[in-house]
């Protein structure tokens, strides 16, 4: 299939655009898709917008040009965070706390969450969901271990719950 935009490249990406109530499908080559912002092998070599944004913000932060700080657990640095937009592990939040608070303050205007919070339902409200998931796991393990009598009992219990 030929690219809908340049008419000479091989279309390898199908892009669906929704404009108002209309839907339009475009068949694009990698070059045209990269120009429209769709990540391809050509576009992946370019720095992402989030990494550019993070590096700009980080350069403006006071003390950002000082000695690089490493996470004691995974050894990732603030430079890694700027490059990828992702922290290496859960311990990075503690290691880079000051820089992250400054970043949040600049991006959101505050470093603390204000607003509604997600409240998880109590386990007693969904007893069949967790037990059904647990039964499915046990059933799978019983079948793999060729314990077919146990598997049949678990299957019957699972049908009773569902």
What structural category characterises the helix and strand content? mainly alpha
Instruction: Report the mean per-residue pLDDT as an integer.
Output: 78
Order of helices and strands: EEHHHHHHH
The largest pleated sheet is described as: 2 strands, antiparallel
Classify the helix fraction into a percent range: 40-55%
Summed up, the helix count is 7
What would you call the shape?
A: extended
Give the N-terminus to C-terminus distance in angstroms: 46 Å
Total number of strands: 2
Percent of residues in β-strands: 5-15%
Strand arrangement within the widest β-sheet reads 1-2
- Low-confidence runs: 63-67
Number of domain modules: 3
How is this structure best described in words?
It is built from 7 helices and 2 strands; from the N terminus they run E-E-H-H-H-H-H-H-H. It has 162 residues and is mainly α. The protein has 3 domains: 33 residues, no CATH class; 60 residues, no CATH class; 35 residues. The chain has a two-stranded antiparallel sheet with strand order 1-2. A hairpin with a 2-residue loop joins strand 1 and strand 2. The longest helix is centred in the C-terminal third of the chain and has 18 residues. The relative contact order is 0.07.
